[in-house]
Design brief:
Elements lengths: L1 H25 L42 E2 L9 E3 L9 E2 L4 E2 L7 E3 L6 E8 L14 E5 L3 E5 L34 E8 L2 E2 L5 E3 L2 E6 L2 E8 L22 E2 L7 E9 L5
Bound molecules: magnesium ion.
Magnesium ion (MG) binds next to strand 7 and strand 8.
Length: 267
Amino acid sequence: MRKALLFVVGGVGLAMLLTITVTSQANASPQGTQQQWGPNDRNRPEPPIITPGTASTQTHVGAPPSDAIVLFNGKDLSNWESVKDGGPPKWTVGNGYFATVPGSGYIRTKAAYGDCQLHVEWATPNPPHGTDQDRGNSGVFLHGLYEIQVLDSYDNVTYADGEAAAVYGQYPPLVNAARKPGEWQTYDIVFHGPRFDSSGKMLRAANVTVFYNGVLVQDHVDIMGPTAHHQRPPYTPTPDKLPLQLQDHNHPVRYRNLWIRELKAGQ
Ligand code: MG
């Protein structure tokens, strides 16, 4: 009886070892799956070494982490195109920043991105013009579908789920961490896109975490579908990777220091 039990335990152990070996080849990420590694296993892959970035100040643009894809090099919009016609964006480029040109339309990245960490800096016009939604309005559209609102929310009341750092029309930010108009503000976003099976059934919703000026304002929320004005359209199947879009909402909002780090499976 005891021998038989040991045999069974041994068999399970061998099966587990084989599973671990096979899985470790399929997923060499340092974190892997929760069950894959025991504590303090020195065979576990070390994380890749990168050089971290530096933070921006109001007068100085910081550096991205060494493994980030730089979306704006401070000089031109070569990584971007017009959503209207696919041609070069008609937005202006200034000294280290670019800005929306009212009426010129949305712009998008030429490349498509999947799950990611995204850093964006933006500044609304100073002196401010208009009130409510008509004041420093733009937007960061993850996958071109899910808007993290850009707005002058300093001393400017609007509906809660339309404030700066809202998932537009769905989730107000946890706090209003707005800086004054004209000051550079930051979004640090962690985005996981939705997944669909081959029949189009949704396996998971999109999910987003947002730090606004370093403050947690969206805490791992499931996005309800594409964002829209006075609507909640349902999800439709989309690819795992899609371009990032920025909104032209008829206000000259500035952007600088945009970079993205794509996340691999398991991250
Ligand atoms: Mg907007």
